[in-house]
Amino acid sequence: MTESSSKTANTDYDVIIVGAGFGGLTAVHRMRELGFSVRLFEAGTDVGGTWYWNQYPGLKVDVESVEYSLSFSYVIEQEWSWSERYAGPQELCRYANFVADRLDLRRDIQLDTRIDSAEFDEDSGIWALTSNSGEKLRSRFVMMCTGMLNQPIKPQFKGLDSFEGKQYHSARWPKEGVDLSDQRVGVIGTGSSGVQIISTIASEVKHLHVFHRTPGYCLPLRNCKMPEEYSKRVKANYGEWRAAERYNSFGGWVALNYQIGELVTGSALDATPEEQQALFDERWKSGGLSFYNVYPDVYTDLEANAVLGKYLQAKIRERIKDPKLAEILTPTYPVLTKRLIAETNYYEVYEQDNVELVDLREQGIDEITPKGVRVGDTEYELDCLVFATGFDAMTGSLKAMDVRGRNGLTFAEHWDDGARTHMGLMSAGFPNLFIINAAGSPAPLFQPIILGQEQVQWVGRLLTQLAERELNCIEPSAEAEDNWGGLCEESVAATLFPLTDSWYLGNNVPGKSRTGLAYFGGMASYRQAMTDAEVCGYDGDFMLSTLPKGGN
């Protein structure tokens, strides 16, 4: 125990962290750096978070590897080199292991251990946690780094259990892989996961049926071996780049792309058609999600949005030879209001003789039969079903856990009518419990790895201030939750996002309320809100107190 630690004989740790993704690894490093006794628990057998759990065919991160990396350690930035412009899960897991080993984090990480329950003791102000092995733990503070996309949506189709073939979910793909050769495969879901799976397995399977309802804006990833010159330039400018651009853009995006120069300002409507064309052509050539860095008003103005939408719709139609298929596969909703889908030869897959698109726009799936899938009067016989049905985003992980705050309150109960948090960091009734990259934060705005680090740093400063002020209990007020929820609603209403059903707003889960689900005011204004709370000494929106140290 260090001098700055608040640990007493009746607690095991100052801080317990749940989840060994990038947020969890950042939290271990930061809490230990500040002198707190800390332990991280991870249900998997290794670190890596979502990249440990997700191993489906064709999976690639859709943010450039150099952006999708941790910024709190100069050593990590300089010593690690990415092999590809867009890393796959195996390399991302190697990166997570490199971070854990290089910073000696493993001595504070306990793998293959799931936290089954966590309960707040109101008399002592201590969290009592129990693991799947029956281990009892006590901690003053808890940090939930369980991720915003972790709880898979279980398919709800009539007759699902009757299917005689194999079933797989993209979020829980067998790590040993699956041999799909000579198989008749059906894929349900054409979001990012589905598109990547379809593009990859189409050449392997005997026959592929794609059950398709809503088209997305699917754009070429253009992955390649990491250019050495680009890697060197990034490492030389990481600090300046992140300080000047990354934290001040709407979604935390940076223009440090090896084919793109600067963040875009100004209105799409003020640009000439030639200027619009030049910018969009540059983004198209670059690939990936670079279209997020275009005119800012495409997020708020329908006319400006339509300028970009028409460009991308035309590009999609150019790639699809069959006019009927082009009609089915070309989206019409406002672009960027769902996450763009980065792909490799996705539309070209439908030219293969062994691939069939099943259009579900008017007639949905009626049932899963023992032999396959029935749509109307047609039964599609299959050997294997792949569900790419996504996640219960932002709230799913915590609602699925047995976490009990004051008076036995669970997140499932507290968030029944919508996510309730203050700044996406804490919830009323759950003292001393922090959530990273979850509901009420800007996490859906494309860069959770940046946000997670910002939030962990904020929590670290908060805990240090509490110790200096001889306080050990903090929670937001219900009024602060109400105010933040209202701000979340105002921020999303000022954009075009509400015009489209998406997981950003919880529309992918039947009956799920979007209230307070995310903050759409942008990274810069969110960081200002965190700064304002610190400047005010956390007074006002937070209730601070001193409870018995260590309990009874």
Low-confidence stretches: 1-9
Broad CATH class of the largest domain: Alpha Beta
CATH homologous superfamily of the largest domain, by name?
FAD/NAD(P)-binding domain
Write down the CATH topology of the largest domain.
FAD/NAD(P)-binding domain
Number of alpha- plus pi-helical segments: 14
Question: How does this model look, in words?
Answer:
The chain is α/β, with parallel strands linked by helices. It has 3 domains: 13-151 and 392-545, FAD/NAD(P)-binding domain, CATH 3.50.50; 160-217 and 340-387, 3-Layer(bba) Sandwich (FAD/NAD(P)-binding domain); 228-312, no CATH class. Helices cover 30% and strands 16% of the residues. The protein has helices at 22-33, 50-53, 74-79, 89-102, 192-201, 228-246, 273-286, 302-319, 323-329, 396-400, 411-414, 448-468, 478-493, 523-535, and strands spanning 13-18, 38-41, 109-110, 115-121, 126-131, 136-144, 166-169, 184-188, 207-212, 218-220, 341-343, 355-359, 367-368, 372-375, 378-381, 384-387, 402-404, 433-435, 473-476, 542-545. Strands 1, 2, 3, 4, 5, 6, 17 and 18 form an 8-stranded mixed β-sheet that branches. A 5-stranded parallel β-sheet has the order 7-16-8-9-12, covered by helices on one side. Helix 12 runs parallel beside helix 14 (523-535). The longest helix has 21 residues, at 448-468. It is globular, with a radius of gyration of 24 Å. The protein starts with 12 loop residues before the first strand and ends in a 7-residue tail after the last strand.
